[in-house]
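In response to a reviewer's request, we include the raw inputs and outputs for one of the modeled complexes. The two entities were modeled together in a single run.
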Amino acid sequence: MLNKANENNNVPISGKASSSEKKRNLQFIPRLEVRQNSPEWLRLLIYAFSLLVGCVCAVLVMYCVGVNPTDLIQEISILLFSGTRTVGSVLAQTAPLIIAGLATAAAFRANFWNVGLEGQMIVGTIFASFIAIHDIGPASLRLFLMAFAAMLGGIIWIAPAGFLKLKLGINEVITTLLLNYVAFNLLLHLLFGAWKDPVSGFPHSAQFDLVERLPKIGWENLTYALPLAVSLVLLIWWILSFSRVGYLLSFVSSNPSMAKAVGVPVLGLSITAIIMSGAIGGLTGFAIASGLEFRMTRDFFSGFLFSGVLIAFLGRNHPIGVAVVALFMAMLVLLGQSLQVFYQVPFALIQLIQAIFIICVAASEFFLTYRMHWRN
Amino acid sequence: MLEINSVSKSFGGFQALDRTDFDVKIGEIHALLGENGAGKSTLMNVACGLYAPDSGTLKVNDKLIAFNGPQDAAAEGIGMVHQHFKLVASFSVLENIMLFFNPDFSYGKSKEIVASKAKTLAKDLGFFIDLESRAGDLSIADQQKVEILKVLIAGAKIIILDEPTAVLSEDEGANLMRLIRKLAIAGTAIILVTHKIREALDHCDRITVMRSGKKVHEVLPNNVDGASLTKLIVGENIISTTQYSNNKSDAPLIQFKGITVLDERGRNSLSRASFQVFSGEIYGIAGVGGNGQNELAAVIMGLKKPIEGNIEITGIGDVTLDTAIKRRRDGISSIPVDRYLHGLAGKQSVLENYSIAAAMRGELGSWLRFNKTLAKSKVKEAMIKFDVQGVNNINQRASLLSGGNAQKLVIAREFSGNPKIVLAHSPSRGLDVRAGAAVHDRLRAARNDGAAVILISEDLDEILLMSDRIGVLNRGQIFAEFDAPATRSDIGKAMVSHA
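The model returned the following structure tokens for the whole complex.
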């Protein structure tokens, strides 16, 4: 009605007559309004839609490098339906990704941007390997000791960053990130020095004994890393969604000053979440060293920092979301490997696709905050 | 000058504006009154281009206009000073103005133009603001002046002020009213959105009253008095009278002895403040803002530790250095001054915001299990008992509640543990008449049940209406104490005295 009046009277929208022409052409640009509220179904719809847009973009990118959508579908169906072997390897990949996502999400829940996952993995694995190499403790308890040592290592590596953040307000993105490099050099120091493989002389640790490896569960090649990951998901889910700790923790991230005012122990809860994140970070390393590679290698941690953040973000910091996205990521990694072999697609493209999904989901936030009005 | 004809606007199923008319002329101050949710803000957001109306027309200088955004409205000379200031704290005053108005492509040239314009304007209006100081360092009143400068420099001929005096002290408010009169005389049209009836009656040329999205009355201030205007706003009689305590105890419940507190810069914000509060009374703390009110509230709630002095609660003992959790276990609860910063977590649900106090007391399950079913039934009960409106679903975000209902939610939570001592800091700030009266009723009820109520407020009317005893906070000290009924002028004198 407004516009009709506008056109009939030929009144320029803006005060300046010269710009009226331009404005008229721009009328198909939507105008934005802040949403009064956004119900849950709308959230899910927008989230699903953004993932769909991500899929379409990914298929387009693949098409551009010469992989037909039909080939893509074929590869995916080979991965999923050609037998239990490929499904087994997807699940084996999934386990450490789940743990990595949980480690990151736990810290994010307390507004602590832990980007030091790789450092925590390295130190955790060094601690676990120390137990393994020196055969500490009885053989029957060796694995538990290793897991415990890995968690301790992760906590030791996140603790300084946590202390600096909570006590002095120093940005944890910087400290956790830089501690990754310290940990990496520590790892190289050990692998090129004291812990060099005595058998082959290569820069990786000696192979773990059988009792120091996560046992197989008896289906395909899967080890107990997967049940470990799943039970962690359930544990964290319980803590965050059903316990009083998780309930209070949600206030720590949504409004810390209000939480303090009603007496919530903000500091204690933040420390708990940070320690939890570090411990799970250490376990990620343990799950790879003891569950996949059976030794400490030079690059077992590589890429997990990014994947952890990605999985936590796409999973909305929810343990179940993390598990689902981790499964999806593992599929993407294996898909990437076979595309690399059969279609000469560079691995960077897989990372590009991951990035596309991040951008799509991040952009969807905009549609949750604003409503668009189309006028013509 | 500006004419709004038969404008409607709905959000989802909610009709915020229903064929509303409004206009303002050059040289006029036009007051827009109404309860929270009456549609005042929506109407003004339509006028300044933030919302597009569903139907109806806008005219500026008899010319039909459609705004595509606030920048179009600004081009037509409509400027809005929002209730929550939109200044960048780390930028200088000048930079903040330039963010809004940039007359030249070159940064240096633009800076010169704006600086000279700002200086002349500030001088004309009698402002004293250093253009180089950081916006975050300014007082609230000065920040508001910067907001007004911003819209004036951009060439605004119609200025909308959204509850400008809600955050100001009495003196500052009076100064602001003088200022807008000056602007009106100079040829600006002014729309004043307000809750304060006295302001509309004393300083405006015309008053429009809105109720549930409709314009219900347009009156001249000479033809109406405060009581009848209140009636027009709420559609019924709300009479607020003083009711004094009749069950005040003989011994004090809580005593503050020589409390000294430092602020962030190491200056004394409270210096040896001493007072005591009895159970069954409302102790009002009057004073001009910035005389230590915030620090006093923080000390009472255990969020700040005094460097000197003691706090004693009868039956518990010295509690000076106790934490916030301990304070709450001692039976103190608090209605904070900024309900969206310290009172509620806007992103969390009504259920979560209500239950947190009980959860902190160790109710609603254990550390391992948060009993949501029990919490749900409790919150539903409380929403009815405390008359919190607008809760369609207890899982909705707390930020969706209007100011009055958000405050009622805070009160419902804070009163859920039957507190012995209640701290209320400007509890009716920003609330409309009806919601403010409801809050006051709650405080009186708590007092009648035997609680000691500490009411900190910069609104002298509120202090006079509510308090059984009044302490005046002046430069960090309880400067004088009065028994109710006290006279306004005596308290006013003590508030600004420099003796």
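As requested, we also summarize the result in words. The interface with chain B takes residues 1-3, 5-6, 9, 11, 13-16, 23, 31, 33, 36-37, 242-248, 250-251, 254-255, 257-265, 373, 375 of chain A (CB under 8 Å). DSSP finds 15 helices and two strands in chain A.
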